[in-house]
Design a protein that fits this description.
The chain has helices at 2-22, 32-35, 58-65, 70-73, 76-81, 102-105, 119-129, 134-137, 172-181, 211-220; strands at 90-94, 111-116, 140-144, 157-163, 183-194, 223-229, 236-243. The protein is of the alpha/beta class. It has a seven-stranded mixed β-sheet with strand order 3-2-1-4-5-7-6, with helices on both faces. Bound molecules: S-adenosylmethionine.
């Protein structure tokens, strides 16, 4: 049993690596997500108030975060393209988890920082990193952060993504204020999270943050909204923001 779990862990690490190497999502013909008409009801299960899941659950979380059907309902390539040209830029993925987005951005950016507060995800991302070519290894850094601080250096990030993570953050306005110090003046902040109303994927409604609240909190923290898109993804909203002039 232990051996099977170890094998699953390594397979998932390998699939993340493969996604990065190919600059494309790791879709295979055996992908369960590709053979179902509707996305898996277990994808991105309810964890928002329990980021530190018990050790026994970790493989399940990784399997969930790396689930193949995400490529259908979350369109990671389209999402990443919203950040524009990442060449020469440093991107921080806050709440990076298994690195689902972080490793996909690696071929496009100068540097990707996979930020998380859970050391198990840091270890997982590092296990993927060591399998990458030297060129990619040099451009990826995992970073253990604090719940109230993404631990970015002043002005370090030229772009920040926060996918399926916003609801985990407590005292979000303070968190966003701290985050803005780690962003360069022209950095984009991209937040993707689940729409309210029960959906076949994502947490229960009580754990979701309405897009109107995200907007309010960003403004309170000194950001200006560049774009809100409720249509591009069936289950999720997309918010793009940047530091307001007075916050630079
Ligand atoms: C649902 S997962 C999303 C993972 C990844 N973004 C993805 O889309 O696959 C949420 C992640 O946020 C992390 N997290 C929770 N609170 C955090 C905080 N305050 N700062 C950074 N990461 C946090 C958790 O450890 C977990 O890895």
């Amino acid at each position: 049993m232990k051996r099977a779990r170890h094998f699953l862990f390594l397979s998932l690490a390998w699939s993340s690596f493969w996604a990065c190497q190919n600059d494309a999502p790791p879709v295979s013909s055996e992908s369960p997500g590709m053979t179902r008409e509707t996305p898996s009801p277990v994808s991105t299960r309810v964890e928002p108030r329990q980021p530190k899941a018990s050790p026994g659950n970790f493989e399940n979380l990784i399997a969930d975060y790396e689930s193949k059907d995400r490529v259908i309902w979350q369109k990671p390539d389209m999402v990443i393209s919203l950040l524009g040209d990442l060449e020469g830029k440093t991107v921080a993925d806050l709440g990076a988890g298994s690195g689902y987005f972080a490793f996909r951005m690696l071929p496009k950016a100068q540097k990707v920082i996979g930020v998380d507060i859970d050391p198990r995800f840091i270890a997982f991302m590092d296990s993927v990193k060591v399998r990458l070519s030297k060129q990619y290894q040099d451009r990826f850094e995992s970073r253990l952060a604090k719940p109230d601080d993404p631990m970015l250096k002043p002005g370090e990030a030229d772009a920040v993504v926060m996918v399926n993570t916003y609801g985990y953050i407590e005292n979000r306005v303070n968190y966003l204020k701290t985050l803005s110090k780690g962003m360069s003046d022209h950095a984009d902040l991209l937040i993707i999270d689940f729409k309210k109303n029960s959906l076949p994927v994502g947490p229960e409604d009580e754990f979701k943050v309405a897009v109107s609240q995200v907007e309010r909190e960003l403004k309170s923290a000194g950001f200006e909204i560049q774009k809100i898109d409720n249509e591009a993804l069936d289950y999720q909203y997309i918010v793009m923001a940047a530091k307001s002039e007075t916050n630079k």
